[in-house]
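Researcher: I'm comparing several assemblies side by side, and this is the next one on my list. It has 956 residues spread over two chains. Same procedure as the others: predict the full complex and return the structure.
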Amino acid sequence: MRFAFPAALAVTILLGAVQAASAQQATAQKSIAGAMPATSDPHASAASHELYFGAVLLDQNELRSTGRGNPVYALEGLAYYGTDYNRVWVNARGETNRDRGGLERAELQVLYSRLLGYFWDIQGGVRHDFRLSPRDGTPPRTYGVVSLQGLAPGLFEVQAQAFLGERGVPLFRAAASYDLLITNRLVLQPEFEMNFSAGWDREALIAPGLYRVEAGARLRYEITREFAPYIGYSYEANTGGASGLVRRLGERSSQSTIVAGIRLFF
Amino acid sequence: MTQPTLSRRKALVAGAAALGVPAATGAALAQPRLNTVGPREFNLAIEHASLNITGRRRPAIAINRQVPAPLLRFREGEEVVINVDNRLREDTSIHWHGLILPSGQDGVPGISEGFTGIAAGSRHQYRFPLVQGGTYWYHSHSGVQEQAGMYGPLVIDPARPDPYGYDRDYVMVLSDWTDDNPMRVIWNLKRDPSYYNFNRRTAASLVQELARAPDAAARTAAVRDRMMWGDMRMDPTDIEDVTGYTFLVNGRTPQQNFTAVYSPGETVRLRFINAGAMSHFDVRIPGLEMTVVQAHGNNVRPVVVDEFRIAPSETFDVLVRPAGGRQFAILGESMGRQGFLSASLATQEGLPMLPLPPHRERPLLTMADMGGPYGPTGLDRGTLRPERDRPGQVAPMSMDGMDHSAMGHGAAPSGVAGAGMAGMDHSAMGHGPASIGGSHAGMNHGGITDSRSLLVNDEFRRSASGAPPAGLAGSRDLRVPAANGRPRARRDTAPPAMDHAAMGHGSPGTGQVGQVDMSAASLHAGHGAMAPPDPFAVNTGAPPGTRVLTYRMLRALDNHYPVREPNRIIEVRLTGNMERYFWAINGNRFSEAQPITLQLGERVRMRFINETMMSHPMHLHGVWMQPQVGNGQENPLLHVVSVRPGSTLDVDVEADAEGGWAFHCHMLFHMETGMMRKVEIVRGTRVAAR
């Protein structure tokens, strides 16, 4: 399969942080299961009572087809490891090139995540957009990230992220999704994402204002919580000045795709 | 953690464990020879084992190769020595649940004096006198070993014979078994608190509700209810955190049908012990009434019931008189209706189980469970240094953020409640009152009024019963020492919960609180009234007329503590984060919390305020808990008090045992994720007040 390699690469990136931390896991578990370390200070042992845990969610792990040409493999996911309050958080996304099969776009965020309130996390860290082919695609970019994410009233998962790159163009991203339970295992998940910029970054296909929109709806069946095949619809568009930048490259500024994939949760 | 390695020898062990050993046969390997001089010695060996409950061999932890662990039968007045061999690959511990003993023998690593656990491969000797009789149990207090099978019954024969007779005596150890690694269960709950809930409300169930609704108003109400829960970001179907359990009686599944044998005409004593890690059971024996004679190891005035709810770690002893040689099913339905435990009373062993009845309707949380106006918080928390709620540990719809001064305490009670809800809308829930106001419209404000008076029944009862009324609210402010230096400003504007006079109630000091409460309980049963729930009501979904045990029915036969005023009130708010699955006391998880410090000899009133939507059986080691149920000198002595969602409940504690004691929710995963404190009972000078 043409997308096998990039898929494996992306998964590896995603799991990296968790695996690095898993060495500590044994220690953490020991202090949980074995109660207390060999110290007579009860306060020290209380502190060691903190639980460490992690998770990996590949929310989008799918093939996208416009009905023409090769399908594209796309992945979007997250992973975290840490405590109730403090976590290392990784967001990753990427998709393959329609023609060559290699990764066309890939974005990785490595964040420190801190519990802010009952439903909210504040996060800070680094985002890197990779240029995977020296000739194709958008150039590499690195941004600092500040992010707020959580569960809004009405049970909407929301995320607001601000990015500041080395070129000084601030970006902003707002995303929301919702799990509509049709039955306890059949779940329709609409999601929506908007990207804004305060200035031009033509190489990266970024224009002032709303420059990129993604929307989709995925219907999954949770055979288990861990394994949920799905089908869905996805729409993405470069808007405003960005649509002209994209058209200049001879590409469509928007596309609709039918998607099919498997949501994975560890 | 438990490793899924299976040696041949352990597989054999498992075979024995899976068969189970009826505890009542006294087959315990731990039982020593009688007639020895000095303290009797018992030997317990803790080992990894594997257990086949569901058809799959799964790792477990056994004591003397048994799950449940062997029955320990002690005698009141003797001293015992218990040698514990830890043959696990991890630390362990044994806690003697409900026993009054020196702190150092209590078996909680890091909390009991000088005890840090029993290291892998080592031996630990417990030695303590038995100063009480009754039915108790023992279990690991390390990590999640209890869920893996490390629990067993403990019976102390009283020095004076019990004031009731019986012909047969059976221990009924109730428990919940999961094939999942218990640590894995916590992880699953952490990454998705709904992981085990496959009974959430869905679009499909909404369609059914709408189809069943008799009229347009009901349909509107159904939709509004959904929106309200969505706005709160809470789940009304969240009754049990963990599902997929197989429920056991003495280690036996319903199909394996543990049988308590009787002969017609005999009186049988059943000692129910809920050793389940996470499960409440509604216990009944269709066709038989039960006479509760003992609760939590202490004899009570016999009370006849048809069923009782038993929270994790509680024990109730009942007498039954099965007649006619029939086979009776002893049923325990889990609170969330995920399954039954089942055993039999029959004249012979080996009969097949009786067919299980259909499940009762699965309960839904209501607005009442969300907690009504709890009254003011911000009292003494019993810590030496000031303590604040940490972010994310208190549900945002709690009344904490409410402006009490704006509540208009002088107004009519229904007005108070209305103002309270509006305040909640604005300050915490982040939406306009219109979106929730509609659903209030249909609610029973009369009910609110009634039960607001119930919440605070205690002062009235005391004044009614001739104890010093002491000016109630006003005097309470004086009585509470400023022990932890928290800001007092809020208390000035917000009178304590007891301030009924200001709330415009009539003269509720009629001493009939119990009756009023019961009616309020039935008033609110099964629908979403806004009133704070009666803390003692037990709604098992039983048909009308069923006698269901509540703490109010428990009248201690021998409560040797004289009735007296508590020194102070210690606020114990039960909090936590359902979205992250961690739990806390007063907004501080165990890992970050200070101990609660009590003076030796003082009597404190712990005011439990359950700000979560789950029941929490709160267990205090070392001393008795006396829930203020209104029975005066006969208030029961309990080692655990089940605090239902949204309720406020006063429990008096005589701090008569020096040392460090664990204080925690006995839902194992609530404890493990933070709902735990150390309680230090110290001698000497007053607690430093700053």
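Model: For your comparison table: Residues 1-47 of chain A have pLDDT under 50 and may be disordered.
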